[in-house]
Amino acid sequence: MRVPCAVTVLDPRMVGVLSDSNFAVPFSDGRWLEGPAYSAQGRYLLFSDIPNDRTLRLDEMSGKVAVFDSPSRFANGRTFDRNGRAVTCLHGDRAVVRREHDGTETLIAAEYAGRRLNSPNDVVVDSRGDIWFTDPTYGIVSDYEGHAAEPEQPVRGLYRWHDADGTLELVTGDFDQPNGLAFTPDESSLYVVDSGRGSITELPLTGDRVPRVVVAGDYRFDGIRVDPEGRIWAATVRGVSCFDADGVEMLQIAVPERVSNLTFGGRQGNVLYLTATTSLYAVRTSITGR
Prior knowledge:
The chain is 0% helix and 47% strand. By secondary structure, it is mainly beta.
């Protein structure tokens, strides 16, 4: 199935951006899709259907979608580390886990300071192998995307798991509902979506770490990605928006459903995959990202 892809250029810097005129829709039978992550080694995409408690797998070469894991423990966001291992946030287990190459699972984090995490949501891995993740309460507010429970943590935090010694650090608890994550290309800063406040904040990872709100408004931000040019691609209630590093909106892509998350994939890294409510959308672009 294909549906029109309408791109609106808002800034002359994006005039040269090209894309297919239609989205491919390889899957449209979900309840609330999330967590797209592309394996360059395997040429497949994993994504979550959270309320249906399953993880799905798109084989890029055949275009077929199959169940990868069910029950998935209400898996949400995920990424692949530099060794090609999937790192996944689990609402159901209130944990972050890593799938090793032999199929076994390593528990990265399930508690902090002797108390269970809320419901890890999104995750990124830096070049050192450290794992950063957000921990809002979306997976414990009801039984729709997890298991209803009272939070044990006093904050909804941004955490960092240190690969060198396996310790877990609370980086900050100053967000309302921290959500999507993405590094700047040089990893000098981390962008953090705060869905509770409707903002994307840049958190410097060097110096005094003074945060800077890059953009805020009624976008209802969710997942984000950063391309090699440093532009922020964000899932919003309007579809997908692209911002420069100062928060200037440069481009919009209209999508028939509300977009939860996005990632770049494909053999050349220029296929934009979107999880949007019930459906997975894909469109080839002239932007390359990972």
